[in-house]
Predict the structure.
Amino acid sequence: MTGLVLKLGPHERVLINGAVIENGDKRSRLAIMTPNANILRLRDAIHPEEVNTPVRRVCYIAQLVLSGDAQAGDAKLQLLRGIEQLSQVLTDHDSRNLLSQATDYVLEDQHYQVLKTLRTLLPREERLFAAKLA
């Protein structure tokens, strides 16, 4: 990765390598140049009580690595297993591509990208659960 650009709104908080950083009064952009820095937008954070679906569970594992609450090596197998289980249910072409990308990011230890990619599956999962309940 050549660098990650974060666009932050006023007073938005981000966790970078364990330090919470709060933006000032104006919108700003931060360029993160350090490879493999652990970054988590706090507005995107999944709280433990929200970990109630398969996609959210896998996202949460990636989030734990980014927050420093889990080691990347320990989480790798859990992430790969979780993604494999999701691929058994989310069989459409777009979901398969996203899960394949997420797998590649896990293997490259790019946990921010894993989380970002998997989060795009949340609306699909929501629709599947809604259709099942209807």
